[in-house]
Amino acid sequence: MGSSLLGYTSCEDCRGSGKKENGDPCPNCAGTGMVAVAEPRRSEDDERKWATEQRRFRRYLTNLPITVAVRGLDIEGYCNQIAEGGLGAFLPEEVGAGSEVRLQFIVPPESTQLRVQGVVRYQIGFQHGLEFTSLQEAERAAIRRFCSELPSVSA
Prior knowledge:
Layout: E1 5-10, E2 34-38, H1 44-54, E3 60-70, E4 73-83, E5 86-90, E6 100-107, E7 112-124, E8 127-132, H2 137-147
Antiparallel strand pairs: 1-2, 3-4, 3-6, 4-5, 5-8, 6-7, 7-8
């Protein structure tokens, strides 16, 4: 199995400036100040075992706009993975693990507006794993219907 891109984080070599001390572009990040963060590689057998043992719900690839409210601040980002128990979101600001948040997003195809409570379970750079903590059965059903039309993250 190949590594999957989780998102981007500040380059450690140039501390996100994109430049070396002498002003030349940083070779590690090609002058962008950002480097990719990828999941570690796992064999196909390890991936199946990990997905079976660690996940209560299968994850699905998507690209939904999302608003995450934390500490009185609304952060606009996008959801890149979704499951009945939570979602993965790329946010332009880092929100630390353990933070309680309010999530707002629209689930196709019926354009179901969801406003649910959640908690940040992990944060790697700008990629966040969020668990739903207040999902009602009708909301879970809307997510389930949406997921049935999406490609699975782990087959």
